[in-house]
């Protein structure tokens, strides 16, 4: 990834998550529920939201902010793998 893009995303991240990031500085308030560190859990959440926002603003005709907010809330309330259902392949395609 281009260094300029990384710098830009870092700035966007600080602006968007300015109120959220300090919460992660208090481990007694936030505890990961799976067997990973708080730092990895924080990064996974932030990257997930940031990725959705970057995708949203890159669309030729983005949805209204209220709609993308609903998408973000839905995604945050579900594990990423649970957002899709993998269909079984028909027998003829398994060869």
Shape, principal axes of CA atoms: globular
The biggest beta sheet reads: none
Distance between the termini: 37 Å
Structural class: mainly alpha
What is the chain-wise order of helices and strands?
HHH
Give an account of the 3D structure.
- The protein is mainly α and 95 residues long.
- Helix content is 49%, strand content 0%.
- The protein has three helices and no strands.
- Helix 2 (38-58) packs antiparallel against helix 3.
- The longest helix has 21 residues, at 38-58.
- The chain starts with a helix and ends in a 19-residue tail after the last helix.
Topology, please?
Blueprint: H1 3-16, H2 38-58, H3 65-76
Helix pairs in contact: 2-3
Summary tags:
95 residues; mainly alpha; 3 helices
What's a quick, concise take on this entry?
The protein is an all-alpha fold and 95 residues long. It has helices at 3-16, 38-58, 65-76. The termini are far apart.
């Amino acid at each position: 990834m281009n260094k300029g893009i990384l710098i830009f995303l870092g700035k966007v991240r600080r602006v968007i998550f300015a109120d959220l990031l300090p919460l992660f500085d208090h481990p007694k308030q936030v505890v990961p529920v799976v067997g990973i560190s708080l730092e990895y859990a924080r990064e996974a959440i932030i990257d997930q939201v940031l990725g959705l926002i970057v995708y949203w603003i890159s669309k030729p005709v983005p949805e209204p902010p209220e709609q993308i907010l609903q998408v973000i809330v839905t995604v945050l309330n579900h594990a990423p793998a649970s957002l899709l259902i993998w269909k079984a392949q028909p027998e003829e395609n398994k060869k």
